[in-house]
Amino acid sequence: MTGRLGPAELRELFLFEHLDDTQLDWLAGHGWVEDAEAGTAVLAEGAPAERLAVLLSGTLRLCQRVGRDEVEVVRTDQAGVYAGATRAYLPEGDTQYTATVWAVTGCRFWFLSSADFSEFMHRWFPMAIHLLEGLFLGMRANQAVVAQRQQLLALGALSAGLTHELNNPAAAAVRAADALRGRVAGTRRKLAMLAHDQIDPRLLMLLVDVQEEAVQRIAAAPKLSAVAEAEREDELTDWLEDHEVGEAWELAPIFTGAGTTTDFLDRLAESAPPGLLEGAVRWLAYTLEAELLLGEITESVTRISSLVGAARQYSHLDRTPYERVDVHEGLESTLVMLGAKLEGVRVVTEFDRSLPPVPVFAGELHQVWTNLIDNAVQAMGGSGTLTLRTAPDGDHARIEVRDTGPGVPPELRGRIFEPFFTTKPVGQGTGLGLDISYRIVVGRHGGDLNVESEPGDTRFIVRLPLRDRPSSEGAAEDRGEAAGSAP
Fold first, then answer.
1. I need a surface site. Which of 45, 160, 337, 360 has the fewest CB within 10 A?
2. Considering the entire predicted model, what is its pTM?
């Protein structure tokens, strides 16, 4: 403590110029003056918020930690600017300094303890206290309600998308199972008829040979385009009709799907005993259709299992809240969960699989991926190219979400992370998606979230530290504004 200021000197500061003599006398008796040498940290971010600081002379700079870096927010030499315990008079006032104040040059400050500041405000400005308390707590409550609504809307969209994704393979599995049941019943009837007619041993041996080869062809069958598939069906239909096989139009699609060609059927025709070709072809078609249906059921059930696994990974139901995880798993599960929205979008993944596991709150990080990917898809109007890229970046992991949309105008880039700011039409956005993402990446994980944008190339860049954060940093979240300063 180096001295005090008198009431007249306090009145010269814009912060106190409209106070009466009694109020100034009270402040003069409770406050004190201190000098700070250049390079001194006058207030340290994270330390207990014990006093209000008012600059009397010199130049200061106000800085905040962003990840492991310290970012300068304000630099000023205006007498009367203030920082520190600016909300000490509220019921849930400052408990920690939310920024660091550095003396750039030799500075002189007037200080008031947070307890005295609170007493002063309650004694002379009780109505203002009620108004400020209502404003501060009301805004926080409103933001919490809107954020909860945002999460519910996201959950609703996620549930709708998941239901849609699950319904398709489930319906396909049911449909294939019913068809397979009917085909197996038909095969049993055909067997009974052949047994009743005392099946020709030569036909039986032929069927055993060609059936095994034909089934193996299914796995190796190339995926045909719509045009090539139609041409193959026409060729097979013509072949079946030329060889007097009935209902050729019904059998041709089965052989096409199984990768069977007319060359293979020519070999079958050359080996079949006279008069038994149609029976051999039908038997082979039944066998191949049963294999195709079994494959469809297997693929559908596997798809359902993959979706359930992605949902479990996405919601992080089987993990601890904070641990080292492979960020690629979270990105991939988010793509699966948003599959319905990505139907018209080309998705490119450029993952550096050598990236080590990252210490994160995985469930919260999935919300970041959802917001960034969903915003990218909406920006592109549901069509375009979405690129996800990962790479090491020094002692950080770098994750990029890139879209080919129209871009973010330069005048808006500085505001897109603000609460409630949105460029979407009324009713289509709350303006909290990017704000929440920023808080999760920067506040919870000590990382960075930035945007680089030009028409046709917008990139949201997330940087997450690869080393564990100290517990005190991990707990420091949603601290609110940095520190108060007068204009």
1. 160
2. 0.45
